[in-house]
Amino acid sequence: MSLLPISIVSFLFVFFSVAPPFITAATNDDLPTAYSLLQSYNFPVGILPIGVVSYDLDKSTGKFHAYFNNSCSFALEGSYQLDYKSTISGYISENKITKLTGVKVKVLFLWLNIVEVTRKGDELGFSVGITSANFAIQEFYESPQCGCGFDCKDSRSKSEELGRNPFVSSI
């Protein structure tokens, strides 16, 4: 009888020593980034600021959540202020994000929720429900940074060194 417990312990030790290569669990290293996921649905990476730490996606419904360590705000040229909560969510499909929550834009003195993003050719449409605005897709080839958008000293100096416009992709 005393051999049985030793055999079980030995078996478990060998199993757990050998098993990890055969166990497949989705880790963050196994998943594409949130930015490459956007590209797989035909969106440019720049609709998300730098700093997404994780996300989840239900491929059967398109329901997603993207997570930042903190909320993220920045201004863009042309008087737009954007605010991303620490968690944003919605439904994504080819060329369309619907029921978006967690992203606001300040227009004049009003904060409005961006509820839908669509891509039509080389334009992105951002809807706040009652109205929408279209922008050229090349303005979103790079992701802005929280706090400073595209006007960050580090990104500006790199862009100036390379002699390129920060709104145009180098790809």
Number of helices: 3
Order of helices and strands: HHEEEEEEEEEH
Total separate domains = 1
* Termini gap: 68 Å
Largest sheet data: 9 strands, antiparallel
The CATH class is identified as Mainly Beta
Structural Rg: 22 Å
How much helicity do the residues have?
Answer: 10-25%
Q: Which regions contain 5 or more consecutive residues with pLDDT less than 50?
A: 1-27, 155-171
Structural class: alpha+beta
Strand tally is: 9
Shape by Cα distribution: globular
Percentage beta strand: 35-45%
Overall pLDDT level? 78
Can you tell me the CATH architecture? Roll
CATH topology: at5g01610, DUF538 DOMAIN
Walk me through the structure.
The protein is of the alpha+beta class and 171 residues long. The protein has a single domain (33-162), classed as at5g01610, DUF538 DOMAIN. 19% of the residues lie in helices and 37% in strands. It is built from three helices and nine strands; from the N terminus they run H-H-E-E-E-E-E-E-E-E-E-H. The protein has helices spanning 3-18, 34-40, 153-162; strands at residues 52-58, 63-68, 72-76, 80-93, 96-107, 110-113, 116-120, 123-127, 132-136. Strands 1, 2, 3, 4, 5, 6, 7, 8 and 9 form a nine-stranded antiparallel β-sheet that branches. The longest helix is centred in the N-terminal third of the chain and has 16 residues, at 3-18. The N and C termini lie far apart (68 Å). The model is unreliable at 1-27 and 155-171 (pLDDT under 50). This is DUF538 domain-containing protein. Residues 1-25 form the signal peptide. Keywords: Signal.
